[in-house]
Amino acid sequence: MDYSSSWVDTSLDLNLNPKRIKNEVSIQENDFMELGIRNISAKEESGALMEELNRVSAENKKLTEMLTVMCENYNALRSQLMGYMNKNSEKELSPSRKRKSETSNNVINNLNNNTIGNSESSSTDEESCKKQREEVIKAKISRIYSKTDASDHTTLVVKDGYQWRKYGQKVTRDNPSPRAYFKCSFAPTCPVKKKVQRSIEDQSVLVATYEGEHNHPHPSQMEATSGASRSLNLGSVPCSASHGSSGPTITLDLTKSKTTTNNDARSSKPRMDNSPEVKQFLVEQMASSLTKDPNFTAALAAAISGKMLQQNHKEKW
DNA sequence: CGAGTTTGACCAGCGC
DNA sequence: GCGCTGGTCAAACTCG
To answer: Which of A44, A176, A200, A273 lies most in the core, judged by the most C-beta atoms within 10 Å?
Structure first.
């Protein structure tokens, strides 16, 4: 999740354009001049309005800055939490098979050294943890269908913007075409895995199955925030999001997008992140994740109450 | 030379 | 216990 300053700017832009209003005021002022009615009072009024405008725009600027700082703090906290969670998961999970065998050896050692009761309790804990982990993974599985060049039956690459490292390939029983296994290599701690296999029905369709959630922003988003104002790769991908009983599910149907090069897609197709649906979706996503965060809501409440108190103080004086 | 890919071997889970 | 299958590892290889 990333909150760029541009988003903050646009969302908080209250269309208070002092220049424009200034012109309108000056037109009004000219009309009054022509009519020759209450020149001095009109000037006073416009001056007061300008003052008010300046005050409001300054306040707007302050609020924008506050929200930007808040978003930065939120991101920092979030990344800290992610790091902490990764550390914990590294401790709890057995990432490699070797470690698994080590843990099984430990169980055997426990059996040899300790009483049966102790070993049993440890094994039941392991089982419950494992079940929980499986449930979490199941809830974060998504499937993507990607249309590829019909003549090209060799590549198993689904271009989703992320950086993947292939670690295996297998021919499965139910499908003659091989299944490729990928791990997200963009972030070393990212747990996301991807399986890519051609569809049995249509060999030109790649079926990518994603497991887990990325603990880092989308690479294109990272680029966008680091200076280059490029839009999301997702931009040209038709997507739908649902929140079923099994958890959040994202389905991307890449078969609906033409197999054009990135440049072609960029030049000919209207970018999807410009469409109101995607904007609304992104805003809803941001809003939901922000409202779910107690740190953010607390900080926001504190900021608003502080601002209100400040306002009351001003009005009194 | 480092990063990514390939591929045979190994392991765990499951059904019989 | 055995065989089958899916998933993962890691050494060898390739490529820029």
So the answer is: A273
Give the tokens for residue A151: 């003549």
Tokens of A32: 């009054």
Instruction: Using a 7 Å cut-off to protein CB atoms, list the covered nucleotides of chain C.
Output: 4-10
Chain B nucleotides covered by protein, CB below 7 Å: 4-9, 11-12
pTM to 2 decimal places: 0.42
Q: Which has more confidence, A268 or A275?
A: A275
What is the rounded CA–CA span in Å between residue A167 and residue A182? 6
Tell me the H-state helices in chain A: 5-12, 18-35, 39-92, 97-113, 116-139, 219-225, 262-268, 276-292, 294-316
Up-side HSE of residue A221: CA atoms within 13 Å toward CB?
A: 16
Contact residues for strand C with beta carbon within 7 Å: A 95-98, 167-168, 170, 172-174, 179, 181, 193, 195
Q: Which residues touch strand B (CB under 7 A)?
A: A 97, 100-101, 104, 163-170, 180, 185
Q: A167 and A181 in contact (C-beta within 8 Å)?
A: yes
pLDDT tens for A91-132 read 443 333 333 333 333 333 333 333 333 333 344 444 444 445
Handedness of CA A30, A36, A39, A45 (dihedral sign): negative
Which nucleotide has its C1' atom closest to residue A155's CA? B5
Residue A219 · residue A234 · CB < 8 Å: no
A40-53 b/e (C-beta count within 10 Å ≥ 16 → b): eebeeebeeeeeeb
Sheet holding A164-171, edge to edge: A164-171, A178-184, A193-198, A205-211, A141-147, A247-253, A239-244
